[in-house]
């Protein structure tokens, strides 16, 4: 063996390299280690912690056992069937009073139709053909026939009229939310009363016509176009412009209603090509003229106080 001398006088043995390698290999193969490997214990503890956290979920809540119960499934199925039957009953009764399926027809419009209809309401004198087109005993959609009634223009006309009325009140320092609400509600009430009066008149005269309540709402709502034109003209150019424009629009709506309702209320005589004769036909003609004459009255009544 090799010994090396140190400064203190003691000799130390110099180990060979191969012996160091042998000892290191023996230490590595030995089961005892200098430091205990805690990586496995750490992973085990972490997995245990996860199991503790997931324990309640893995075990399941009490509601899950209830959902898996056959009786609860049967009750849920019975409740869903009752809900579907109730929805069908509501839809059927609602369609009886408010035909929602038919309302789609009255809103089937496009930009071209709206432009032509507005021109017809303001300039009806040059229009020749007033008959509504049919396809297989069904009237075509308004976007394909300018003579077909619609609810888009009356609805937008009513909303625009309320806004223009608010603008007119604001320019006169008389605007208030209450007054604007009174203006809108009064216009709506007068419209409903007009339609109810026409329905009562048709019932008393016993007119066989294909006019519906929605048709009457549409025809009665077309007067808002002339009212808007009159109020806007009055705001821009004063009272003389209001009276002139309103007079023109009143004459236009009168001609429009006469030529439109004449084909509806006098359909039997028009189909046979006969003149309007007899007491019943005269009553129908008087009723047509009364409905047309009521439009200018309402137009003036609902707009004269907005121009000062």
From TrEMBL:
The chain crosses the membrane at residues 151-170, 182-204, 216-236, 242-262, 283-302. Residues 1-63 are annotated as: Disordered. GO terms for biological process: endoplasmic reticulum to Golgi vesicle-mediated transport; protein transport. Residues 1-10, 21-36 have a biased composition (Polar residues). Keywords: Endoplasmic reticulum, Golgi apparatus, Membrane, Protein transport, Transmembrane, Transmembrane helix, Transport. Its main location: endoplasmic reticulum. Belongs to the YIF1 family. This is Protein YIF1. It comes from Seriola lalandi dorsalis. The lineage of its organism: Eukaryota, Metazoa, Chordata, Craniata, Vertebrata.
